[in-house]
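In response to the reviewer comment on reproducibility (Comment 2.3), we provide here a single inverse folding case reported in full, input and output, so that an independent group could reproduce the run without further information from us. The structure tokens appear first.
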């Protein structure tokens, strides 16, 4: 009885430590546009902004071969097209430019969320997600659960898409990136409203190292 109680206490302690230590510097580092990135709340929140001079982004410090990757995101409340707010896993490129990638992308700031998968190719597996909330009003949780056989996309712990890899497919190692940038195929940016700021927190990674 005493041993069982001790084991239970230890398990609870480990879970609390694993879920509460979600500080930016533990897993992540700036990727580009560092002067457009602010780390606040003692490292528990990152703000990425975009204006006419630059966007911004950050990346994980290491690569992974599977795992659960979670981020709480609140996009800019200023309505515009053309601005991409993203959270994704990505590999290095192959000799022909093909690569592996798993995407959450907000297209503009009107609440349109897109998922996409690249499997040693150029992607073209876009699917839109219908959200029952305004993603600029508060933080919501976006999760990529990636294994050798499939990818499960979740929003607020609800599965919104499942992608099954082809039989015997082997993905490259992937690292995590979160970026805010602009592109014409997502619409026209109303730069008169700039800067556009998106907010990230809950930097959860439970990944398997490739080493």
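Designed residues, in position order:
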């Amino acid at each position: 009885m005493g041993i069982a109680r001790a084991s239970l206490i230890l398990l609870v302690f480990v879970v609390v430590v694993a879920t509460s230590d979600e500080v930016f510097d533990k897993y992540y580092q700036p990727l580009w546009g560092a002067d457009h990135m602010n780390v606040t709340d003692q490292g528990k929140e990152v703000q990425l902004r975009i204006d006419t001079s630059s966007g911004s982004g950050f990346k994980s410090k290491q690569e992974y071969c599977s795992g659960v990757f979670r981020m709480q995101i609140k996009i800019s409340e200023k309505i515009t097209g053309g601005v991409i707010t993203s959270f994704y896993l990505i590999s290095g490129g192959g000799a022909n430019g093909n690569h592996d990638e798993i995407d959450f992308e907000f297209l503009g700031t009107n609440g349109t969320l897109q998922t996409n998968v690249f499997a040693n190719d150029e992607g073209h597996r876009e699917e839109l997600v219908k959200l029952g909330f305004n993603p600029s009003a508060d933080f919501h949780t976006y999760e990529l659960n990636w294994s050798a056989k499939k990818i499960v996309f979740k929003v607020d712990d609800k599965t919104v898409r499942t992608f099954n890899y082809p039989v015997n497919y082997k993905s490259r190692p992937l690292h995590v990136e979160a970026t805010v940038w602009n592109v014409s195929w997502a619409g026209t940016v109303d730069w008169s409203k700039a800067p556009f700021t998106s907010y990230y927190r809950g930097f959860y990674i439970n990944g398997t190292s490739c080493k």
